[in-house]
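Final report, section 2: Outcomes. Of the targets proposed, Methyltransferase is the one most frequently requested by collaborating groups, and we therefore present its record in full.
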Amino acid sequence: MSKAGALDLASGLGGKIAKDDVLSAVDKYEKYHVCYGGEEEERKANYTDMVNKYYDLVTSFYEYGWGESFHFAPRWKGESLRESIKRHEHFLALQLGLRPGHKVLDVGCGIGGPLREIAQFSFTSVTGLNNNEYQIARGKALNRVAGVDRTCDFVKADFMNMPFPENHFDAVYAIEATCHAPDAVGCYKEIFRVLKPGQCFAAYEWCMTESYDPSNAEHQKIKSDIEIGNGLPDVRVTTQCLDALKKAGFEVLFEKDLAVDSPVPWYLPLDKSHFSLSSFRLTAVGRMITKNMVKALEYVGLAPQGSQRVQAFLEKAAEGLVDGGKKDIFTPMYFFVGRKPLSSSQ
Ligand SMILES: C[S@@+](CC[C@H](N)C(=O)[O-])C[C@H]1O[C@@H](n2cnc3c(N)ncnc32)[C@H](O)[C@@H]1O
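The predicted structure is given below as C-alpha cells.
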C-alpha cells in the first residue's frame, strides 16, 4: 500500500539522505536554479546530483499527495483524478500494442505506479529503470504487495547510459521522466539502441509549447518556477523533442499535445480555486494543512530540518505548473509514438 499518513511523510522525507544532511541538500539543490543564481549549463553538467537530490527530497511528498503514479493526465468530465491517471497509463499500453509476454522497459519509473498498472493491464513483464535508490526500494516493496515482483523488476541506472544489450525490449515507454535528461537526442538514442527493430517507444514529455515566448519575462519566470520545483535542467519546446526523436533514428507514428483536447484541464487538481474531496491533499486547503503539519513535525524533530523548504519549492512548482497550463505555454503530456525501423535503410 502507498504511504499515506503524516508520519510516513515525515519518516520518508529526505529519502537516502541522512536526516542531518537534509537542510544542506536543500541548500545545494536550490543553488542549481535561476532564482538562486544557478545556470542551465551547471544543472546539465550535474544532472545526476541535482535530480537525485530532488527525488530524495520530494518522493515522500509526492506519495502523500499524489499516490503511486507521479504524473498528470488528460481528464473527462465526471472522471476522478485517480481514474484519469490509470486511463492515461492504459492508453499508453494500447498505443504501444502491448501483448502478453512482451518485455517492456519503463524509463524513469518513479516508485513504479505506472509499471504495476501497465503490467497488470497487459500481462507483460516490465523493467523499471531509475537512478534513484530510495524510489527503487519503495518500488520493490510495493511490487511485492501488488504481487508483480516475479514478473517485474527494477534496475538502478542512468537513462543516458543503460546497462542493457541492444535490441532487447519489445516496447519502451517514458512517463514524464525524460524531461530530466540533459540532452534529449542522447537519451532517445539509448532508448533506440535497447529497443528491438520494428518495435515502438512512446512517451509523455514535459514541454514548453509553441506559445512560449523566451523573451517574455513572465514566461521566463513560469519556466524557471517549473524547473526549480521539479528538478529539471531545462524544459524543452515540443518541436525540440520531436526533432530529437527523429535524430535518434525513430520513425514518428503519432505526435500530439494531449492537453489541447482535455475537457478538464490537467492542472485543475493544483489550481487554488478548485476544491475536491477525492484529491483533497492537492487543494489549497489541503496544501495549507500539509504546510502547517510539516512545520509542526519539523519543530518537534519528527521531520528533518529543511522539510518546510522542500514544501516551499513544491509550492512554487504547483504555481508554475498552473500558470504555465493556464497560459497554454506548458504541457506535461506532449505524446508521441516512435518506431525503430526494421533496418537502418528503412
Ligand atoms: C516525475 S517522475 C515520473 C515517475 C514515473 N514515470 C511515474 O509516472 O510515476 C521522474 C522519474 O525519472 C527518474 N529519472 C530522472 N532522471 C533519471 C536518469 N538520468 N536516469 C534514470 N531515471 C531518471 C526519477 O528518478 C523519477 O523516478
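The first strand starts at residue 103 and ends at 107.
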